[in-house]
Write a structure and sequence with these properties.
Distance between the termini: 64 Å
Strand order of the largest sheet: 2-1-6-5-4-3
Strand content: 15-25%
Helix content: 40-55%
Number of strands: 13
Radius of gyration: 55 Å
Shape: rod-shaped
Oligomer: single chain
Length: about 500
C-alpha cells in the first residue's frame, strides 16, 4: 500500500483529483451563491410589487377595511401607522417575524382612522364655517400627529421629514427577511416596506412579503445535484488520470526494469528501449543509452589499461627478479647497472600510471600562472639537440608541473625519432599560445596520427621496449592539454618528420 501511494502515478492522480475537487467546490459555491442571490432579488421584487399594490390603494383613498390584500400565503401584508399601530393585515396571517411589527390583528381604534373618510373640499369648509374648518384642519393635524410619534415601528421612527407627499408612494423600499405563519404553516419570506401618504395626510407603512420556497427549493435541488455529481465526476477524473498516467509512465517502467537487469547482469552492452514518441521519456531513454555507451567505453578502456599496465609491469619486474636471483647465486655476475635501469623504468611507469589515474579522476589543474616560452626554454636546455625559439610574455594558466611534464614527453618522443635536430617554437595566435615541436625523423603516417595518443600504443613494433618506452607519454600529454582547456595535434614537419602542435588559452592580463 505504501509503495502504491508513493508512486508518481498515485501522486499525479491524487493531485489532479484534489485540484479538480477544489475547482468544482469553488465553482459550485459560486453557482449556489449566484442562484440564491438571483432568486432573493426576484422575491424582493415580488414583495415590493405586492407592497406597492396595497400602497396604491391607500394613496387612492380606499378605506382600510376595503383594501385588497390578496392571498396571505403568497403575500402576507401588514399596514401600520408611523408609530407602529397596525391598521390592516392579511386575514389568515397568524404570526410574523422580521418586519419589526409582531402584531397580526389591526388595532380597533387605529383601523377607524380618518383615512377611511373622503377629503373635505374647500367649498365645504366655507359652508360649514371657520369652526368646522378648524375641526377639519385639526383632524388632519391629528392624523399627521398620529404618524409623527416616535414609539413603536422600529425602523419607521424618525422619518417624518422624508414622508411622501399627500397621495404619493415613496420610492424608497426597505427589505428584510423573516418568517410568517399562515393557516398553521410557517415559511421563510422576504419582506418589502414602502411608505405611503393617504389623501387625508396620514403616513402609513405597507409591509408585504414574498415566499422563499422557490429559492430554497432551487438551491436545495442544485446542492443535491452537486453532491451527487461531484463524487462521480471526481471518480471519473481520478480514473482517467490513473489510466493516462499509467500509459505515459509505462516506458519509464520499461527503462527502470532494463536498468535493473543491466545492474544485476553487469552487462553494459545492453540498452534500454526507446519509445517511438518524441517526448521527454524518449529523450530520457536516449540519454540513458548514451550514458551506458560512455560507461561501457570507460569500463572497457579501464580494463585495457589495467591489462596493458600489468603487461608493461611484468617485463621489468621479471627482468629485475632474474638479475637479483642470478646475483644471489653468483654475486660476480650481478648486473647492478641493469637492475638500476629496470628500477628506474618501474619508477617512471608507476609515476605515469599515477598521473593518468589522477587525470581520469577529473583532477583540476592548479590555478597558477606561468610563461609558456620560459618553460619551453627550460625543458630544452636539459636536452641536447633541442633548439627553442619563443616570443616573450605568453602567459597561460594551470599547473606548471603538468604542462612541464607535457613538454618533456613531447621532447623525449621527438628525440627518440629525430635524426639530428628537434626544433621548438612558441608564438601567440590571438587568444591562444601555440607551441610546436618538430623533428627531422621519418614522421607518422596520416592514418596512424590519432593512434599515437592512445595509451600503450607504439607504432614501431620492431624497436625494443627499452628504447620505445611504455607508450604512455603522448597519451599523458594530450590528457594534460585537454585538462588545461587546450588541444594537442600531430601533423607533418617541414623536414618530413612529426610536428606536434600544442594550443593553450592565453591568460588575460
Amino acid at each position: 500500500m505504501r509503495r502504491l501511494f508513493g508512486s508518481v502515478r498515485a501522486k499525479a492522480t491524487l493531485a489532479a483529483t484534489a485540484v479538480v475537487a477544489v475547482a468544482l467546490a469553488a465553482a459550485g459555491a459560486a453557482v449556489l451563491l449566484s442562484l440564491r442571490a438571483d432568486l432573493v432579488d426576484q422575491a424582493d421584487a415580488q414583495a415590493d410589487s405586492a407592497a406597492r399594490h396595497v400602497a396604491s390603494q391607500l394613496a387612492a383613498g380606499i378605506a382600510y377595511g376595503d383594501l385588497e390584500l390578496g392571498d396571505a400565503e403568497e403575500h402576507p401584508v401588514q399596514v401600520a401607522e408611523e408609530e407602529g399601530r397596525l391598521v390592516a393585515a392579511s386575514e389568515d396571517l397568524e404570526s410574523v417575524d422580521g418586519t419589526g411589527i409582531a402584531a397580526v390583528r389591526p388595532d380597533p381604534v387605529a383601523s377607524r382612522s380618518p383615512s377611511a373618510s373622503p377629503v373635505p373640499s374647500a367649498t365645504a369648509q366655507d359652508d360649514d364655517g371657520g369652526d368646522d374648518g378648524e375641526d377639519d384642519n385639526h383632524g388632519r393635524r391629528s392624523g399627521r400627529g398620529s404618524g409623527s410619534g416616535k414609539s413603536g415601528g422600529g425602523d419607521d421612527a424618525g422619518r417624518e421629514d422624508d414622508d411622501p407627499a399627500v397621495g404619493q408612494i415613496s420610492e424608497d423600499v426597505r427589505n428584510s427577511q423573516g418568517t410568517a405563519t399562515v393557516d398553521g404553516d410557517t415559511a421563510a419570506y422576504r419582506f418589502a416596506a414602502v411608505e405611503v401618504t393617504t389623501p387625508q395626510d396620514v403616513t402609513l407603512t405597507v409591509r408585504a412579503g414574498a415566499p422563499l420556497a422557490a429559492e430554497q427549493g432551487a438551491v436545495r435541488t442544485a446542492l443535491t445535484a452537486m453532491l451527487i455529481g461531484l463524487p462521480l465526476l471526481l471518480a471519473t477524473v481520478a480514473g482517467v488520470t490513473w489510466r493516462v498516467t499509467r500509459r505515459a509512465l509505462r516506458p519509464v517502467e520499461g527503462i527502470r526494469g532494463e536498468m535493473a537487469a543491466i545492474t544485476a547482469s553487469q552487462d553494459l552492452a545492453r540498452r534500454v528501449p526507446v519509445p517511438a514518441a518524441h517526448d521527454e521519456v524518449a529523450r530520457l531513454a536516449r540519454t540513458t543509452n548514451e550514458t551506458l555507451a560512455a560507461l561501457e567505453a570507460s569500463v572497457e578502456r579501464q580494463r585495457r589499461f589495467v591489462a596493458d599496465a600489468s603487461h608493461e609491469l611484468r617485463s621489468p619486474i621479471a627482468s629485475l627478479r632474474t638479475q637479483l636471483e642470478v646475483g644471489a647465486a653468483h654475486p660476480e655476475l650481478l648486473d647492478v647497472a641493469g637492475a638500476v635501469e629496470d628500477t628506474v623504468r618501474l619508477q617512471r611507469l608507476a609515476a605515469d600510471l599515477l598521473l593518468l589515474a589522477r587525470l581520469d579522476a577529473g583532477e583540476r589543474p592548479v590555478d597558477g600562472r606561468f610563461d609558456l616560452g620560459v618553460l619551453a626554454a627550460e625543458e630544452g636546455e636539459r636536452r641536447a639537440g633541442v633548439a627553442v625559439a619563443a616570443e616573450d610574455a605568453l602567459e597561460v594558466s594551470g599547473s606548471r608541473g603538468q604542462v612541464g611534464r607535457l613538454l618533456a614527453n613531447l621532447l623525449d618522443n621527438a628525440l627518440r625519432h629525430a635524426r639530428e635536430r628537434v626544433e621548438v617554437r612558441v608564438r601567440g595566435d590571438g587568444a591562444w599560445a601555440v607551441l610546436t615541436v618538430a623533428d627531422d625523423g621519418d614522421g607518422i603516417p596520416a592514418g596512424q596520427r590519432d593512434r599515437v595518443f592512445e595509451r600503450f600504443v607504439r607504432l614501431d613494433d620492431a624497436r625494443s621496449r627499452d628504447d620505445g618506452g611504455a607508450g604512455l607519454g603522448l597519451a599523458i600529454a594530450r590528457d594534460v592539454a585537454v585538462r588545461h582547456g587546450g588541444t594537442l595535434t600531430v601533423g607533418e614537419a617541414p623536414a618530413g618528420g612529426a610536428l606536434f602542435e600544442l594550443r593553450l588559452p592565453r591568460r588575460a592580463s
